[in-house]
């Protein structure tokens, strides 16, 4: 009798929705990449239907996959979007998990993009803060590996009457240039260290690689691909 084929390992299709690009990558259940990262530009205006259509195109070239995880740039609760300041107001109240499940025919889990990035890099020891520098300013806090949900530091006042996002988002980097922006990053790290007394802080996001200042020993820059690989953690029950 011919030996039966071993069952195929479930494949997770991970998405990272950003203000300028939508990325997708296939992962194994441990978060290991199963191929290249694909990226398409975020449509503008970034209404739900337009973003979903880009995600459908990315999914079409990523088959087969069994489950889907999404990092979304706003507050998400139970698959429903609560805020999306860098995309479009039409997202507020939109059930992304349900719409994408319908569009792709697979089970879908959605979480905040910084939370997903954090899940891809935390060690599970102590107080770990993760911030993402991209179009927006994302934040995620973990205590012994457990996520403190819905931390939105980006919209908190930081300095000169502006929020962290206004001072450190991509628009500010364009505006003031890398040198001044790096100085601001340094100032933010000092405030965050005083407030959170973290064991470690990791900086992700597409502009993380533009951080050139000398970092304290417990602060590091992590690759932005963690915003995709962290998606596997959404399926660890
Ligand atoms: C959103 C956060 C998000 C961050 C990075 C902010 O504007 O409010 O939820 O994590 O941008 O995308």
What does this structure look like?
This protein is an alpha/beta fold and about 240 residues long. Helix content is about 25%, strand content about 25%. It contains six helices and 14 strands. It has helices at about 50-60, 95-105, 115-120, 165-170, 170-195, 225-230, and strands at about 10-15, 20-25, 40, 65-70, 75, 80, 110, 125-135, 135-145, 145-150, 155-160, 160-165, 200-205, 220. Helix 1 (about 50-60) packs parallel to helix 2 (about 95-105). The protein binds beta-D-glucopyranose. Beta-D-glucopyranose binds near residues 86, 138, 154 and 165.
SSE inventory with pairings:
Blueprint: E1 12-17, E2 21-27, E3 38-41, H1 48-60, E4 67-72, E5 76-77, E6 80-81, H2 96-104, E7 108-112, H3 113-119, E8 127-133, E9 137-143, E10 146-148, E11 157-159, E12 162-163, H4 164-168, H5 170-196, E13 200-204, E14 219-221, H6 226-229
Parallel strand pairs: 1-4, 4-7, 8-13, 13-14
Antiparallel strand pairs: 1-2, 2-3, 5-6, 8-9, 9-10, 11-12
Helix pairs in contact: 1-2
The protein binds beta-D-glucopyranose.
């Amino acid at each position: 009798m011919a030996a039966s084929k071993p069952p195929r390992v479930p494949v997770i299709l991970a998405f990272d929705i950003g203000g300028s690009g939508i990325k997708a990558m296939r992962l194994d259940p441990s978060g290991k990449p199963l191929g290249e990262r694909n990226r398409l530009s975020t449509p503008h205006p970034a209404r739900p239907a337009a973003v979903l259509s880009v995600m459908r195109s990315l999914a079409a070239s990523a088959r087969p996959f069994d489950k889907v995880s999404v990092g979304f740039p706003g507050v998400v609760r139970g698959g429903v979007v609560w805020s999306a300041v860098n995309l479009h107001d039409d997202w507020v109240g939109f059930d992304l998990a349900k719409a994408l499940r319908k569009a792709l025919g697979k089970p879908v889990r959605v979480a905040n993009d910084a939370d997903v990035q954090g899940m891809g890099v935390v060690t599970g020891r102590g107080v770990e803060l993760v911030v993402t520098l991209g179009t927006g300013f994302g934040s995620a806090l973990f205590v012994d590996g457990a996520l403190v949900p819905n931390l939105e530091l980006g919209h908190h006042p930081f300095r000169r009457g502006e929020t962290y996002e206004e001072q450190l988002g991509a628009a500010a980097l364009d505006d003031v240039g890398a040198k001044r922006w790096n100085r601001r990053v340094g100032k933010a790290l000092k405030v965050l260290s005083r407030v959170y007394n973290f064991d470690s802080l990791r900086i992700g996001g597409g502009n993380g690689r533009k951080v050139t200042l000398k970092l304290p020993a417990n602060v590091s820059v992590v690759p932005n691909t963690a915003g995709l690989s962290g998606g596997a953690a959404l399926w660890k029950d």
